[in-house]
């Protein structure tokens, strides 16, 4: 599987530069809060359109990647910040969103998110302690809600998947 280049044209969701080194964080998201599954039409294209034609007031929102069970797409270049974490500090991190619509294979989508996390850690020397849930930056946001609720192995299960993939570079993606 390759990362699909769906990088958005330069616009309001480009916020300035990110320095990528061992100080950098990776923030893990799910596309909606709460533990219900989203409708089938909440596809990668749905979220891409939402970033391109945002509702008023949400123009700055973005995320670097969105993953599903079958695809990994990139929307924002890795040298740019974007608004995904609800705080300036959090927005200095690399954002990986994951789809939660009910017609996807959740364990596979979570594994893709973990593989991409391991890839970025290796590429930029980011430690596992800097892989954090969205709620780390904004405690009012219960995101990624399903992992935080312990579903599909929970947050600890996600981190141990990342560690497993980190040890085997065969799983790494080619970075755009
Ligand atoms: Zn989030």
Percent of residues in helices: 25-40%
How many helix segments?
Answer: 4
Shape: globular
Distance between the termini: 13 Å
Quick structural overview:
This protein has helices spanning 44-52, 106-124, 145-148, 154-166; strands at residues 3-5, 26-28, 65-67, 72-74, 94-98, 131-133. With 176 residues, the chain is α/β, with parallel strands linked by helices. Helix 2 (106-124) crosses helix 4.
Which helices and strands appear, and what pairs or packs with what?
Blueprint: E1 3-5, E2 26-28, H1 44-52, E3 65-67, E4 72-74, E5 94-98, H2 106-124, E6 131-133, H3 145-148, H4 154-166
Parallel strand pairs: 1-4, 2-5, 2-6, 3-5
Antiparallel strand pairs: 3-4
This protein binds zinc ion (ZN).
Residues 29, 134, 141, 143 line the site of zinc ion.
Account of the protein in words:
With 176 residues, the chain is of the alpha/beta class. The protein has a single domain (3-169), classed as Lysozyme-like. It has helices at residues 44-52, 106-124, 145-148, 154-166, and strands at residues 3-5, 26-28, 65-67, 72-74, 94-98, 131-133. Strands 1-4-3-5-2-6 form a six-stranded mixed beta sheet, covered by helices on one side. The longest helix is centred in the middle third of the chain and has 19 residues, at 106-124. The radius of gyration is 15 Å and the shape is globular. The model has no long low-confidence stretch (mean pLDDT 96). Bound molecules: zinc ion (ZN).
């Amino acid at each position: 599987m390759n990362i699909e280049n769906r990088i958005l044209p330069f616009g309001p969701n480009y916020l300035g530069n990110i320095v990528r080194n061992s100080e950098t964080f990776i923030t893990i998201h799910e596309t909606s809060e709460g533990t219900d599954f989203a409708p089938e039409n909440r596809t990668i294209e749905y979220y891409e359109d939402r970033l391109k034609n945002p509702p008023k007031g949400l123009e700055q929102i973005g995320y670097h990647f969105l993953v599903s069970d079958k695809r990994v797409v990139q929307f924002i270049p890795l040298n740019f910040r974007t608004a995904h974490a609800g705080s300036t500090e959090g927005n200095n991190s690399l954002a990986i969103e994951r789809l939660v619509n009910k017609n996807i294979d959740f364990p596979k989508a979570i594994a893709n998110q973990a593989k991409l996390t391991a890839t970025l850690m290796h590429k930029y020397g980011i430690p596992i302690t800097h892989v954090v849930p969205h709620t780390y930056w904004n405690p009012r946001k219960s995101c990624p809600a399903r992992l935080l609720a312990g579903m599909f192995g929970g947050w600890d299960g996600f981190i141990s998947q990342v560690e497993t993939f980190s040890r085997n570079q065969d799983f790494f993606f080619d970075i755009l």
